Records
---
Amino acid sequence: MMNLAFLLRKLILPVIASIWSITGFAQKVEVDLSKLVIDKTVKAYNREVSIISSGSKGSYIHLNEKEGAGIAWLEGIQFTDGTIEFDVKGKNILQKSFVGIAFRGSNDSTYDAVYFRPFNFKSPEEERRNHSVQYISLPKYDWPKLRAEFPNKYEQPINPAPEPEEWIHCRLVVKNEEVSVFVNNNSNPSLTVKALSSQKGNKVGFWVGNGSEGDFAKFSSN
């Protein structure tokens, strides 16, 4: 009788291969979002995930609005150090749009994340603009603790400021425990910090914050 684990690998691996395109010597992985399978190759925590087949960015992932943070984990993609690139779109609604990426995840509550607050991008208030892009490391270092103990260190403005309701491109570089965030192909990082904890996980996924929905497209990592 054929081993069940062997049979599952025979069935699942061709599907995964069609979703992930691995190119070049640096092992760059590009994810075809149109071929993701909900609850199999993308697994949601505290959100409903929709795969939209067409848009200005091609196929993209939508996470709905709900209380608390939510994640769409990309199953099979492993990331600890290197580069992640993706496009993301939020909304210009105060305290209702927190969108980004979770990485080095062990589970649904233990991970690092970088996220954006689009409603702050072009605020007339300097203090709000200073809170445009944020790094956190859960469960110990969420944004209230970081803002209180290390003001304006783990969150920064974005220059030039993107349009709050348009797609933005994010390049996240994690190297030697340093986390750098580049926005819209700018050669200068909008945020550079030392990672706050030695997270041991390697899960990665699209992230939205409390009361937020978000759209995500064109994911790759290496």
Note: Residues 4-221 form a domain with the Jelly Rolls fold (CATH 2.60.120.560).
---
Amino acid sequence: MSFDLQPVLRGDIVGVRPLRSADFDELYQVARDPLIWAQHPVKDRYRYEVFMRFFAESLTSGGALAVTSTAGNIIGSSRFHGYDQRRSEVEIGWTFLARSYWGGQANGQLKALMARHAFRFVKRVVFLVGPDNRRSQRALEKVGAVRVGSRPDAAGHDSILFEMRRPAGSTKSG
């Protein structure tokens, strides 16, 4: 079984589905909030032109996901990236959520859904976070990711490396 980088996953708070070009307007309504990007390396991603480039890159990545509420509204996005079968590893990243979903259980459920899916195919899920992005670092610690060092992200920026490992006793099904 090959790794499906754009699964449809559902929880009782959030779900994910493949990101589509038709999602631009709805997703931009979330992304246009400058506070979402305040601690991010690309602080002006709330600007239309900057977000348009990000969105286009997301679509071409092959692993971009729309994050949806239980009502089916788009509340953010995330992505699987860098699947490495040999190293049994995949990255989860590029995640952002509407501020109305911060501080609750939405991010935790999102990461749990994505990690559970990934652990069907890999032993390790990694997350790369900008050194100044304290909010995302705390959020990852809250969901059980462990800081294990640093490495450059896909754009070559220094990043803090977090990981989650497949729970002992679970087996790879593909």
Note: Strands lie at 9-10, 14-18, 64-69, 74-84, 89-97, 124-129, 146-152, 158-165.
---
Amino acid sequence: MRISFDRSEVPDVFVIEPDLLQLAGGRPLPHVYHNPLRLCLILPGTQEWTGTMRIDHTFVPWAATWLFYFEEWLVSDEWKGGGQHPNANDSARYNRFVRRAVR
């Protein structure tokens, strides 16, 4: 896993290995943003995360929880991790929204 963070943005979490797309076997991945592929861990605009929070207390455990639900999804084909699923064209809108929300 790799976490990328810029103070004016929300951290991005990438799973480097194993290859999530390969594990999914052609199924569309649940609860991710695309271009680049990264985990969907917060709902923008909800103040679930602010720039004053620690990444090791938020994004690290959230990513571990996401991976748990992803493994469950691989078996059941049902996302049980809750939240709202972003769709493929949400990435650009999400990035603009987050930039405004964290200022």
Note: Residues 2-101 form one domain.
